[in-house]
UniProtKB/TrEMBL annotation:
Organism phylogeny: Eukaryota, Viridiplantae, Streptophyta, Embryophyta, Tracheophyta
TM segment ranges: 351-369
Name used for this protein in its record: NHL domain-containing protein
Cellular component terms (Gene Ontology): endoplasmic reticulum
Keywords: Membrane, Signal, Transmembrane, Transmembrane helix
Residues annotated as signal peptide: 1-32
Length: 383
């Protein structure tokens, strides 16, 4: 082989090999922790609720005492989106949900003791900068005395028609509020009171029943019960409930959300995040991952943001409930929204990545063999 042919031969192999090495280096995930951590400053906010606005691409958080709802960018820039001074003073804004169809934000409004009882659902128009559409007081069960045991509007989910479903954590039933603000008791299934309170339930959630709720487009809702750790499937028409059979109880569960891409449901507690899947429309389900969280941060809510990334809210609500408020000196100033990453899901992604790399390497070897034959034939013609 001539020197020019030898040089040409080497160039056909050296550069592709260098390219392949660089390409593989870029593809293989780094072992470093690249989770997205957002710290935002708002003295005395103590947010309990969190949701994601897919259109405006920012998070929305509530407040413990200030009657405000705020947007938080992925860089931690916080802005007051809604300040509703018509709400009872010191009202708490708990669960939040974005009605993407009608461009509305739904918020559970609650007055905590020693304030007079007040439970409502508020709807705000996101197209007009947060103008309130309605404020619907939520009805008590007939004969109930709220001075003895008050209702607690905790979390909210919304269907594609604009109907909202709100959990009552104190009385174990679900309200329904239509898109015009008409509120009614939707589901008070006996099943909600049939399960024993978990033996290890402490005072912080022993009396907390139905909590996080999500809507499934196939015609039902999923709702989790804090003090029993059970999950229920509730028909959106009849309100009838069924117990979802799981491989474990979600003790002290709080907020929940769902990833539309694959139907995975995420449930957060003050200690961990559970990831659940089902193959039979939630007659049964499996907890396939448990992720430890920062207990001190007191996580209460979880949402799915852009690119299907999972985030939890560290609002330190218990600290705020125990006395600190936005009006007091020394109230906490910084709070956090942090991405949570599943090692098991990441492992599956790596497997597919390595499969693709394997196919690519096989193709490269085949290409190398073909190029070697081509150069050999060219050299024969030259000689």
């Amino acid at each position: 082989m001539s020197s020019s042919s030898s040089t040409r031969y080497r160039s056909f192999f050296v550069f592709p090999i260098l390219f392949a090495v660089l390409f593989l280096g870029l593809l293989i995930p780094s072992s470093a922790d690249n989770r997205h951590v957002i710290n935002f400053r708002s003295p005395g906010l103590y947010p309990e609720g969190l949701t994601w606005d897919p259109r405006d691409q920012h998070f929305l958080v509530g407040s413990l005492h200030s009657r405000t709802i705020h947007s938080v960018s992925d860089a931690g820039v916080i802005e007051t989106l809604i300040s509703d001074l018509d709400l009872p003073e010191n009202s708490t804004i708990l669960g939040l949900a974005v009605d993407s169809t009608n461009r509305r934000l739904l918020a559970c409004i609650q007055s905590l003791p020693p304030l007079p009882p007040f439970s409502a659902l508020a709807s705000y128009d996101l197209r007009s900068g947060g103008r309130r559409v309605f404020l619907s007081p939520l009805p008590s069960l007939p004969g109930d005395d709220e001075d003895i045991a008050r209702d607690v509007a905790n979390d909210v989910a919304v269907d594609f028609k604009g109907n909202a479903y709100v959990t009552n954590s104190a009385k174990n039933f679900i309200w329904k509020v239509d898109r015009d603000g008409a509120a009614s008791i939707f589901s008070k299934s006996p099943l909600f009171n049939s399960q024993p309170v978990a033996a290890d339930a402490d005072a912080s959630f022993r009396d907390c029943g139905l909590n996080g709720i999500v809507y499934i487009s196939k015609g039902y809702l999923l709702v989790v019960q804090s003090n029993t750790g059970k999950v229920f499937k509730v028909d959106e028409d009849s309100g009838n409930a069924r117990l979802v059979l799981l491989n474990g109880d979600l003790i002290a569960a709080d907020g929940m959300t769902r990833r539309r891409r694959d139907g995975t449901v995420m449930v957060v507690s003050q200690k961990k995040l559970w990831l659940l899947k089902s193959q039979d429309s939630w007659s049964e389900g499996v907890v396939y991952d448990e992720i430890d969280l920062d207990i001190e941060g007191f996580p209460t809510a979880v949402t799915v943001a852009g690119r299907d990334r999972i985030y939890v809210l560290y609002g330190r609500v218990m600290e705020g409930i125990m006395g600190s408020s936005y009006k007091e000196e020394g109230a906490r100033e910084w709070f956090g929204i942090e991405e949570v990453w599943s090692e098991k899901e990441g492992g599956e992604d790596k497997i597919w990545l390595y499969v693709l790399i394997g196919f690519g390497f096989a193709y490269f070897c085949f290409w190398r063999f073909q190029m070697k034959k081509l150069i050999t034939n060219m050299d024969k013609k030259i000689t």
